Protein 1
Amino acid sequence: MTDAAEPLTMDCPFCGWKSKEGEYQMLLHMETLHVEGESPFLAQEERTSPPKGTVGNDDDPQYVECPVDGCGEFLLVSQMEYHLDLHTEETDIQDLPASESTPASEPTSSSLNAAPRSSPKPSHSRSEQSTRQSRAISAWKRLLKMPGSSLHSEQILRRRSDSKTSNGSGSVTRGTRLGKKHLGRYAHEDRMPDWLADLLRKKGQVQTAGVVPVLAQLLELSPTTNYAYLCHPCVYHISKLRREGGFCGYRNIQMLSSYLIQTTNVKNHHKLNSSIPTIFQIQDWIETAWDNNIHATGRAETGGIRNSRKFIGTPEAVAMFKWLQIPFNAQSLKYKEHAKAEEELMKEVEKYFEGDPTTLEMGDGGKVRLTGLPPLYFQHLGHSMTIVGFEKRRDGGGELLVFDPHFKDSYTVTGMIGRTGVPHPRPDYALKAYRRGSKYLGDYREFEILRLLPDPVAGTRTPVTA
């Protein structure tokens, strides 16, 4: 006979306590000490405030740390299951030292004619790490779905977008100091730790060129795609470094910057000096904009962002581009019904991409359409991404096509960079990490998008090539 498998040791994401007796003990621990509201496991007189390790307070939602080693993201519970699904898709990637050490001043080639990059095989230790992470992901997903768990209830899973604010209306008064709900776990931290600052200065960011043309190939192969639009193929996918935490707003500004430094389609693109700005440079530009009374309420709301790891969002991107005199348009979509918010977002994004006269149609009947347009900065509560395209499925539904700074590109995608006519046995599987549809968007009632405005009379527009 074989011995029964030992229960998986689990770490509590709130206080670090370890359970050596499996999921039920962890569930009991979280229901007892970290439940939102009243725990069914405690008598009234025994109920106490959450312990010191809990991330959150009465006005801000509680955050859960992603259990995947090196991720470092703190997410609202409602984000966790989808976030873990995408980590599952990412299991064949993991950080490549060569990728992380690529300086911002030396971007990789985005040409489809470039020699294909080799795809290193995972080492034995990397394989073991992947197995451990897969076990952690599976355990957490089972925990989130256990019947009767408050983690499974609408009370916690639904984002608290209606939290009380200074004006009691559910929307924040401009100039009011914000908390963790908007600025993240480190909302009240004055300065990021030295080890993190050194990491960001030395390694910059993970950036991959040539992914948009690969998405075009995968969409062409996908049996579920009716038609799709994509932004200019020069745009880099920029993702985070291992252990950096949440700098998604900065990473999205960097992705928009990758368009500006490689095309002549937007006025004052030269102000970026042909290089992707660092996180610290972006912070300096935003602070300088505030110094010059450009959306200066942002300083009061954040308490200042220089050398910090506070979240930034659309208002900070607006301040930066306005200071640099780079033309843009920002739009907020807010509705009482989640379905209406998603519907209007899809309409706006599709309208944006279908309006480009330089579109290059690919495949039978122009199923995939490469445009010369910039990508879009996309924000919802707690996270931002870069929209690089729009897809209409054969069943009539829509998908945003995004570069998410949380995740890197898989080997199956990077192995296709620079190559044409490469078959893929499971294109929809490869596209999953880039698609955001109702399953993801249906949890939100408010979105923000920022679009750079191409100069319609530019004398030398950068052409779209495939």
Protein 2
Amino acid sequence: MQLTANPIQSLCIVGGGTAGWMAAALLSNIYKGTAIKITLVESPDIATIGVGEATVPSFMAFLSSAKINPKEFIEATAGTFKLGIRFENWYQKDHAFLHPFGKIGRSLDGHDFYQLWLKTLAQGSTSRLMDHSPAAIMAEQHRFMVEAQLQNTPLANYGYALHLDAVMAARYLRKIAQLNGVLRIESTVDSVALDQREYIESITLAEGQKVAADFFIDCTGFKGLLIEETLNVGYEDWSNYLPCDRAVAVQTENAGEPPPYTVACARAAGWTWRIPLQHRTGNGYVFASDYCSDDEATQALLNAVEGKLVNEPRIIPFVTGKRKKIWHKNCLALGLASGFLEPLESTAIHLVYKGLVNFIRQFPDKDFDPLLEQQFNARMDKDYLEVRDFIILHYCTTQRDDTDFWRRCKNMEIPKSLTEKLAIFRQRGQLLVNEEDLFGTSSWYSILEGMNIRPQKYHPLIDALDGAKLALSLNQGAKAIREATLRLPTHGEFIKNHCAVK
């Protein structure tokens, strides 16, 4: 049998920002040494949205895949470290909990740690689930250290991500991509031409220049110039599950040393974020316009921020959901062009990276086998639905009924996929998660425990373990985590000594 190839030789990324330059930096590294030429067209008139300034641990995998030095990246983006998210006022007013990164506890004889912990509670233990999470204790104590120094210690199972300045990040990624050979064209797109198959053939720029390519990547933000305005793939609107449809964002000067976590505080008609960087703090209010006007939201945000304003507040409208097809014909959508889920769990940049990973797996040739497109879209559908359900979990489990917004959330319709997951968990604390899911069992346990949801019983096979020895083991583990944490430098000290902004 003779094998023939019809390889793609050119990629055109339309739109810059975080998504566009992440794609350019990663793909230019992956395809280095091949005949593939990458061009990126970005407008000088369109600023980066700059809301997604918090990441999840998969971002560290992106940096590694793109061969980017994390220390240099943090210095170039005024980055800080993120051990998790602190949720305030979600379950009830004046109640707070943490969603830490990494694992909680260690399994024993094949038994999930959460089940072990449940048994100790039944025996009278008063330990918190978070006492067994290295990242949670590090976050509470404002301590930090990179993972290389924590191997073979009680803190080895922690995880971390970054807070970053989105504009500075795009600028840094642009430099990396251009060093890898990416051609940057600064212009706006005037028109898009299709061939006889209705595949994208070329784009024409404002100056009349045509840019042709074998494959196009749409990073044009909410408008989706290629994927929606040209190819008309359609949009799945999830507003019935997630009613927030606007955000107001503002930057402030830092008020004190930045903590190693994001803060998400529930408000009357949504929630506010606080993302600490080395040189400033990012703030915003995600809200539902059915319950709050732009002026009311802006004032509520200004009342909540700490530090002097660095810029003027700006309103960002959005529709929660995703494109019906994220890859269609010879076009892939990334970032806001592919869909939008409110940044409650900082998943926007993760979904860009996941889109790139899945695209590289299914990378086509010029024959564009439709099966590759189908497999990609099926995987991305699962990724979006997983994140959607995890975000809904924060709302539908609230006990707040002090505003119309929270009464709606408390009594909201929830998807069948989430209903089934919660029903199984409530029985005896078991969760069904896919190994490719972003949120593993530790993440689900963190939110469920934070929202005061516990199962009716633990798994019966846990009774085969000696209860006294089990309790002693868990107590010793929690003590070791706390003692090891207190030996670490503070988050601020670590940044100052190792990766301060230049």
